[in-house]
Amino acid sequence: MDHGFFRVITPARFLELLAEFAPTSGEVAALDGCLGRVLAEDLVAEENIPALDRSCMDGYALRAADTFGNSEGNPGYLQLVQNAAIDEVVARPLGVGECMGIATGGSLPPGADAVIMVEHTQILGENTVEVRKTVVPGENVMLVGEDVAANDVALPAGRRLRPQDIGLMAALGFNTARVHCRPRCGIVSTGDELVPVTDKPRPGQVRDVNTHTLACLARQAGAIPVLRGLVPDQRESLVRVISESLDQDDVLFISGGSSIGVRDLTIDVLESFADSEILAHGVSISPGKPTILARVGDKPVLGLPGQVTSAQIVMLVFGQPLLAHLGGDARAFDPGRRTLRPARLGANLSSKPGREDYVRVRLEDLGGELVAMPRLGKSGLLRTMLDADGLVRLDAPLEGIAAGQTVAVWVL
Amino acid sequence: MDHGFFRVITPARFLELLAEFAPTSGEVAALDGCLGRVLAEDLVAEENIPALDRSCMDGYALRAADTFGNSEGNPGYLQLVQNAAIDEVVARPLGVGECMGIATGGSLPPGADAVIMVEHTQILGENTVEVRKTVVPGENVMLVGEDVAANDVALPAGRRLRPQDIGLMAALGFNTARVHCRPRCGIVSTGDELVPVTDKPRPGQVRDVNTHTLACLARQAGAIPVLRGLVPDQRESLVRVISESLDQDDVLFISGGSSIGVRDLTIDVLESFADSEILAHGVSISPGKPTILARVGDKPVLGLPGQVTSAQIVMLVFGQPLLAHLGGDARAFDPGRRTLRPARLGANLSSKPGREDYVRVRLEDLGGELVAMPRLGKSGLLRTMLDADGLVRLDAPLEGIAAGQTVAVWVL
User: Both B345 and B225 in a single domain?
Assistant: First the structure.
């Protein structure tokens, strides 16, 4: 038995290696299927939004200069030339002393440069409007191109599309867009003790958990999980499933093989493929040290620990950024994409210097103060992740963090 | 024209009214389709997880008492009775002075109460193991039922399922579960100025944005958006589309009608349905005041402002919690489901007392300090939501918040 890790690298180096893989190609998606997809092209505005100066309020379009000095006690009077329908574009320029009734969203006539809210006016007779307030030029007006100017990049390639981005696309008339293909992520569990969820385990057997948690986490990262099932700790089966996945998927995640013999088998099998390279054999994080990164052809293969909690941590720290990157997300490795919440640490944490620790914590509101309570526990148990609201990272040089210190909790 | 709101209520009251609508019924979903779904039943464990005491490490199962006093300088020696395969359950009890080779995940034999990591041992000859450390009972062992005990509620009804929950379901053999149906959410945009995304707007027209942003936000809240298209500001069309939606959907969202005449039309039409009730006509938030809540039969109808930013804010503050609640989520109205990040306010904010303001902010890291910079702007523009990382709420009694104060940013 060989207990050593030959190529243990730092998490920073691990992420650098992940970034070298190429993102997926593009495909055309319909607007209403674009939420969460990543643009594979810059979307350039062909029009100004708004296309015309538009009113933000129900009221009267006017020339701001005509209201100067107006107040509740000293109102002014304008001549109402017409009430315009919301979709009406009035060509007749507004003259001095004139105003036009306008609805929210309506277009301003030439000559008008502001809108007064209806609440600050009074209609007198047929066509006189009392104006009890001074307005300034631009008041209650959305200006041409204030949202986006024609020929500007409205949304850049690499952007993962949020609801408000989809709204902008709609405004600009993009009914489709070129987006990165969702990476197909093959998922394999290895381990002679594993049975599928549908089986009743015999004593000594357990049901396969990692396939399902990793599939969910892959989906959350924008990938399409391809469940390739359970593989016994046996060379031919492993060769077959890896070949199949590398033929059809963009990336392969193999969990299991945390027991030493099996880990070695996975490495051996990966090395047996033509144009393959073991990029990392161990990474200095805990839990998650026995993680493997390999390249076969131009595709990444990530070997995750079999322990259920370790596998989830490795997926969060490396797997999800890799999938986001393969899916074209420009922010895949941006630490800013993690939501961090400051909290007071509720108990002392110790760490082995030289490795990055990820401690599961529960967030508790103690009298208005947010406290991160560590949920220590064996990484083969599901419980710590079930109870956890987030993770606290102890950086490699630290020997620990004392209770009472403020920590940044990575909210899950 | 009628400028008044007859039934302006507080946001707290609005949420109470939303909570009175009944959640959807249940359906059976397959395990791999359960991510993000909400349980409609308690899942009760039929087995202990783990089912047997299992090892967390590669090493040797032993009786902890046999190692007391062992150290690097004073090792002890145990007799290796066998190396067990990972899925092997050894029935022969471990005697005093004996140990058994065990892999991570392997089951402990009777009599063993701890595991020593292989790193702290040395194999001597055929079947003697040198043990250079004292272990305590339970060390490196996952105990029977430590994750879940048989007959316990493993996951309660009302829980929205996360990856780790799906993992627990897999461990327990739940290949399906009864979950709430995703609420079908009819979405209608009204406004004579609106054209579909596929059209080139004439001057005075704009493309419909709200259908698309609201559909995305509905999807994020676990609902199925049903796009019911554009409706002109005209009674018969509105009656037809509302009837259709109420026949087929669980809830209807109508945006538009921020101009006064149209708002009144929506109210009139809703009141014309049998067994209908206008529950709110205006809510004291900004933006978003002209929001309508009605009940038609047992279904909620939410009327959102037409302004694109106002519509998104109303959707975030009321629409998403309503959809989560209809979808059975026990935490739908729990303020804890919003991610709040403390930040220093970057500019003075003023507010009209008596209404709850939602100010869009961008989060900027200024020399290690998180600063929330307000993005003030007209609520008819898309820009402020495009630029925003989150929202700052100014509670109703406040007249403002001074720059430099710490605020809780609701991260979007």
Answer: no
Whether residue A216 is predicted with pLDDT greater than 60 in this model: the reply is: yes
Residue pointed to by tokens 């930013």: B309
DSSP class of residue B148 equals: B
Instruction: Quick: pLDDT tens for A55-80.
Output: 988 999 999 999 999 999 999 999 99
Residue A262 has pLDDT above 80, yes or no: no
Helix (H, G, I), strand (E, B) or coil at B35: coil
Inter-chain contact A308–B217, Cβ cutoff 8 Å? no
> For an interface test with B, which of A37, A107, A117, A206 has the most B Cβ atoms less than 10 Å from its Cβ?
A206
Q: Residue A6's pLDDT band (boundaries 50, 70, 90)?
A: low
Looking at the predicted structure, is the pLDDT value of residue A4 above 60?
Answer: no
| From A107, A165, A386, residue closest to B164, measured CB to CB | A386
B207 with A171: Cβ contact below 8 A: yes
Three-state DSSP at B390 gives strand
Query: Coil, strand, or helix at residue A177?
Result: strand
Residue A35's domain comprises 26-49+146-180
Check CB contact of B139 with chain A, cutoff 8 Å. Answer: no
Residue B14 in contact with residue B293, Cβ under 8 Å? yes
Interface contact B220-A308, CB threshold 8 A:
no
Confidence of residue A260 (pLDDT cuts 50, 70, 90): low
**Taking a C-beta distance cutoff of 8 angstroms, is the pair A115, A137 a contact?**
no
Q: Which residues pair with B230 in a beta bridge?
A: B189
Q: Are residues B219 and B306 in the same domain?
A: yes
Amino acid identity of residue A219, one-letter, is R
pLDDT at A259: 58
pLDDT of residue B1: 35
CB contacts < 8 A (A, B): 256
- Residues A339, A345, A347, A353: is their CA dihedral positive or negative? positive
Task: Write down the pLDDT at residue B367.
Answer: 86
Q: Which domain CATH number covers A312?
A: 3.40.980.10
Classify residue A209 as exposed, middle or buried by CB count within 10 Å of its CB (0-12, 13-18, 19+). Answer: buried
Q: Does B167 lie in the same domain as B69?
A: no
Residue A197, helix vs strand vs coil: coil
What's the predicted TM-score (pTM) here? Answer: 0.94
Mutate to test the interface with A, among B46, B104, B117 (most CBs of A within 10 A): B104
Query: Does residue B130 share a domain with residue B60?
Result: yes
ω into B137 cis (within 30 of 0): no
What would the two tokens of residue B338 be?
A: 């919003």
Give strand ranges (E) for A232-317. 251-255, 276-281, 285-286, 292-296, 299-304
Residue in chain B nearest A86 by alpha carbon: B193
Q: Tokens 């993102």 identify what position? A: A23
Tell if the CB–CB gap between B340 and A340 is shorter than 8 Å: no
Flag if A168 and B382 touch (Cβ within 8 Å).
Answer: yes
Distance from CA of B384 to the nearest CA of A (A): 9
Mean pLDDT, chain B cut into blocks of 10 residues (412 residues total): 64 97 98 98 96 93 96 95 92 96 93 95 94 95 94 97 97 98 97 94 94 98 97 92 97 81 82 95 92 97 94 97 98 89 93 91 90 87 90 90 94 89
For residue B392, count CB atoms less than 10 angstroms from its CB and return exposed for 0-12, middle for 13-18, buried for 19 or more. buried
CB contact under 8 A, B164 and A211: no
B199 neighbourhood in chain A, CB within 8 Å:
173
Two tokens at A58? 């129900």
Q: Are residues A74 and A90 in the same domain?
A: yes
Question: Region A221-239: what's the mean pLDDT?
Answer: 94
- Domains of chain A: total: 4
Whether B402 contacts chain A with CB within 8 A: no
Q: What is the pLDDT of residue A3?
A: 40
Q: What is the pLDDT of residues A167-190, one digit of tens each?
A: 999 999 999 999 999 999 999 999
A positions 242-301 inside 8 Å of B (CB): 258-260
